[in-house]
Amino acid sequence: MSDTLAPAARRARHGKPARPPKPPRAASLWSDAWHDLRRRPLFISSAVLIGIFLIMSVFPWLFTSVDPFDAASCQLADARKGMSGAHWFGTDNLGCDVYARTIYGARNSIVVGVTTTVVTALVGGLLGLVAGFKGGAVDTLFSRVTEIFFAIPSILGALLILAVFRTGNVWTVMLALAVLTWPMTFRIMRAAVITAKSQDYVVAARALGASAPRLMFRHILPNAIAPVIVVATINLGGFIAAEAGLSFLGVGLRSPDISWGLMISDARERFLEAPGPLLFPALFLSLTVLAFIMLGDAVRDALDPKLR
User: Fold this and answer.
1) What are phi and psi of 91, to 5 degrees?
2) pLDDT tens column, 164-205
3) Locations of Basic residues compositional bias (predicted)?
4) Is 90 part of any domain?
């Protein structure tokens, strides 16, 4: 006990004031969620995988010195060769290095997923915020419009849009997916806003004279955005898979662009003869989609106190 009190006694003897105790950590939904996420192996493993794929998409030259866009890197004499020291994943039908194409294919696939997620979250989230806050005729109008989009099958609608544009690139694929998928985010945000705007803190802020924009963006949005973040994280993996499916069907990205879905489509006819050009991009695609779904599950569990 004397050892415990010795530092405090010495400070008192020399006239130094005792150190004030550290203030307790401020409790909030986001701080509690982050504290919970750091202890979840599911979050750590998915975040590591996503980090690797993001670095791969931004800096592909860090993973391979071969430029798949250089025609000189493809040799027809090496077509459909197996794994070797020169070609880790083998070669495709044109003698191009499958490993290099798989690395560079991450960029387009992830860009489509990220941009589509951002657009759907912004459009659906903003419209859902306005509809849930305003109610009445505005809510009725927006809800009827979303029901029209829900009646359109997503894949069929995307096929139709891309067939009309006839230009398979990142932005047309993103547009085709975003146009048909924003209503899901709208409904989630609308429901969360309707629940939040009846809370006591919102009623008190309205009674104190807070304006409508301040109520929406200062008081309601921070407390209603959590489910949108969860759904957006899970949907991101779905959008990457959707881009691969559209490219596989021949209406998504097209050569000379590189994406995992396009690689799978090009390799399917010679799969039994050379399975590597199909299996490796399919493996990377599956790991990416799985990582984002796992991340969404971990975020959902952390943000919902009932699931902790």
Assistant:
1) -125, 160
2) 877 778 888 898 899 888 999 999 999 999 988 888 888 888
3) 10-19
4) no
